[in-house]
Write a structure and sequence with these properties.
This protein is of the alpha+beta class and about 625 residues long. It has six domains: about 40 residues; about 80 residues, Phage tail protein beta-alpha-beta fold (3-Layer(bab) Sandwich); about 70 residues, Immunoglobulin-like (Sandwich), CATH 2.60.40; about 130 residues, Ferric Hydroxamate Uptake Protein, Chain A, domain 1 (Beta Complex); about 60 residues, no CATH class; about 160 residues, no CATH class. It is about 20% helix and about 35% strand. The strands form eight sheets. It has a seven-stranded antiparallel sheet with strand order 22-23-24-25-26-27-28, with no helix packed on it. Helix 10 runs antiparallel to helix 11. It is flat. The termini are far apart.
């Protein structure tokens, strides 16, 4: 059988084309068109000429002129590229690359031409970022492993975290994991009901890990209903927090201390505006009810008596149990379908009298404040928005934009011109202002100081024991003017006396008073943040240094103050009868009183005229 060799190079092009499937032919055609377009853009970017004759002009003005005389447009960040530097440029029929070389001859700016788009960026920043990324990628290593229990069964969903980072993963259905870490990283392996393990990965990349059961956690005694049980015997979902957790958290109330301590317990602060009056919202296991206006709050019991979380001195708490499932309804009935929070406070004990004093001093700073746009950029965006809508900007004329720019560059101008309607009034900040104001920085302090002091005394003997404590805390808010304040005093006394061998009397008194102040208008969430969204061209202060009428700072400082005084008083009497060993009967009498007084003092606000006198 003879074999025929075909020389494909000698075949006509159309003959080869016929052998190519139609889908591939279409793909080749599209690639050809794309390559032609890219080549055309490259030719356009290299061959387009431009003429300029500008003396002592800012780079920004030069870039704007190039945009006007050509189809080019520039992309850059004015905070990273110095576009306010003055230059002189004189070229005739020069390529765009030559013009850019003259503008950025210092070599600190990188430019990239993509068709009619020119991207400006700092060379040094990108080179540093590239070097860091390459170094990090070179240092990382991949580790693998399998996690099992004492019986050799794989543990599904175990957490593996690189210590000191948020880098982590979980095991799969076979107990296996893969993670990229630093060469000498330490990983932490954890799973509910098992002891944590910390393992150093230096010199090793494959691991076989066995987790041991946390028998101590299973033996822990927790409060459930009217008694206690070991965790190992529990069938319901119960979360616990002990006094060690509270002692390590420098916050002033129980709601803040509980945040993030119990899985499924969600605590959020009020409506987001007030540090004082808006009570924390608490729920267990997420959404509780879908009815509008209804709520599903857990039942809160303090030593068996319903009460307010924030009326308790955090330093008095011995432990907290959170009953998270419907089983709690079997004890507490219809009050418990949304969970129960059981708070047990400290008591006296037999032994020598002990006196304990502790305090903490805190400095706090606001987090995640928005960063508003600068006034010049804001004016340009507003002008362009009007232009896109088919109308000339009525608020930002070329002359006003020029004033805003000059003010931002440091020229000695008034933050708002005099009103054309009244020579003794400053022009409205929205309509005439040329300031460059970050209203968030003007309204909020950089840091505030708070303090707390706690004194407790306990002791007793086998017949009688006692526990007495007093707590004072002072917290301040972040407002520069009309600053929020909260003062709280809590006193507690507990006495337990053994009247006979089978009868014990327990008496508890707790009194809490809390005073707080805040601006009146701050309690309206929507109104508060809407006023803070004032335009950056509106000043916070006039040329004489007075608060500018209409600014958020002016509003907070002059609208008035809301004062509230809250008082809680709790009394508990309990008889504990034990006629037969192990058979206890409790007789309780509880009394509570709550009172609140609110006073709103509305201030009369005065704006200052150009002559520095009230109007």
């Amino acid at each position: 059988m003879n074999k025929t060799t075909i020389n494909q190079k000698a075949q006509p092009f159309y003959a080869l084309l016929k052998k190519i499937p139609i889908a591939m032919r279409i793909t080749l055609l599209l690639l050809f068109v794309l390559a032609f377009q890219l080549q055309a853009e490259q030719i356009y970017s290299q061959d387009t000429k431009i003429s300029l004759d500008m003396k002592n002009a800012t780079i920004e003005k030069v870039l704007q002129t190039i945009e006007e005389k050509s189809d080019y447009y520039f992309l850059y960040n004015s905070k990273l590229i110095d576009v306010y530097r003055t230059v002189s440029v004189r070229v005739k029929n020069a390529a765009i690359s030559a013009v850019l070389e003259k503008l950025f001859k210092s070599g600190n700016v990188n430019y990239e031409v993509k068709g009619s788009q020119i991207i400006l960026s700092p060379k040094e920043m990108y080179s540093q970022i590239t070097a860091v990324v390459e170094a990090v990628q070179q240092q990382k290593k991949t580790i693998t492993g399998t996690i099992v229990d004492a019986a050799g069964e794989p543990i599904i969903g175990a957490n593996i975290i690189e210590v000191g980072t948020t880098n982590g993963t979980v095991t799969d259905m076979d107990g296996k994991f893969t993670l990229s870490v630093e060469p000498d990283a330490t990983i932490r392996i954890s799973y509910i009901g098992y002891l944590e393990q910390n393992i150093n990965t230096a010199g090793q990349s494959a691991f076989n890990i066995t987790l041991l059961e946390d028998t101590q956690a299973l033996e822990e005694v927790v409060v459930v209903g009217f008694g206690t049980q070991k965790k190992v015997n529990l069938t319901g979902a119960v979360g616990t927090v002990d006094s060690e957790v509270f002692s390590s958290r420098p916050v002033s109330n129980v709601s803040e201390m509980l945040q993030g301590t119990v899985p499924g317990l969600n605590i959020t602060g009020g409506d987001g505006t007030s540090m004082n009056s808006a009570a924390s919202k608490i729920n267990v296991r997420g959404m509780t009810t879908i009815g509008e206006g209804s709520s599903g709050n857990p039942l809160i019991l303090i030593d068996g008596m319903e009460g307010d979380l924030n009326s308790v001195n955090p330093q008095d708490i011995e432990n907290i149990s959170v009953l998270k499932d419907a089983a709690s309804s079997s004890i507490y009935g219809s009050r418990a379908p949304f969970g129960v929070i059981l708070i047990t406070t400290k008591s006296g004990s037999a032994g020598k009298m002990s006196v304990n004093y502790n305090n903490n001093f805190r400095w706090s700073s606001p987090l995640d404040l928005p960063t508003p746009m600068d006034s010049y950029s804001f004016a340009l965006y507003f002008r362009d928005a009007d232009a896109n809508g088919g109308a000339a900007s009525t608020l930002f004329s070329p002359d006003r934009i020029d004033l805003i720019k000059r003010y931002q560059q440091g020229e000695d101008l008034t933050p708002s011109p005099i009103s054309p309607d009244d020579p003794n009034r400053w022009g409205d900040g929205i309509g005439y202002g040329n300031a460059n104001t970050n209203h968030y920085k003007e309204l909020f302090r950089n840091n505030v100081f708070s303090q707390e002091h706690n004194l407790s005394i306990k002791g007793g003997n086998e017949k009688i024991n006692y526990y007495v404590s007093a707590n004072y805390s002072n917290d301040k808010g972040f407002f520069t003017y009309n600053q929020e304040t909260r003062d709280r005093i809590t006193t507690t006394s507990k006495i337990s006396a053994k009247l006979t061998d089978w009868l014990r009397l327990k008496v508890t008194n707790r009194f809490t008073t809390q005073n707080y102040q805040e601006p009146i208008g701050k309690t309206s969430y929507e109104q508060f943040w809407r006023r803070l969204a004032t335009w950056p061209c509106a000043p916070a202060y006039d040329a004489n240094g007075n608060l500018f009428e209409g600014s958020p700072v002016f509003w907070v400082a002059n609208e008035g103050t809301s004062d509230a005084r809250e008082k809680w008083f709790y009394q508990q009497y309990q008889l504990e009868l034990e006629p037969i060993k192990g058979w206890k009967t409790f007789i309780d009498f509880n009394y509570k009183h709550y009172n609140i007084e609110k006073t709103n003092v509305k201030d009369v606000s005065y704006s200052m005229g150009v002559d520095n006198k009230t109007k």
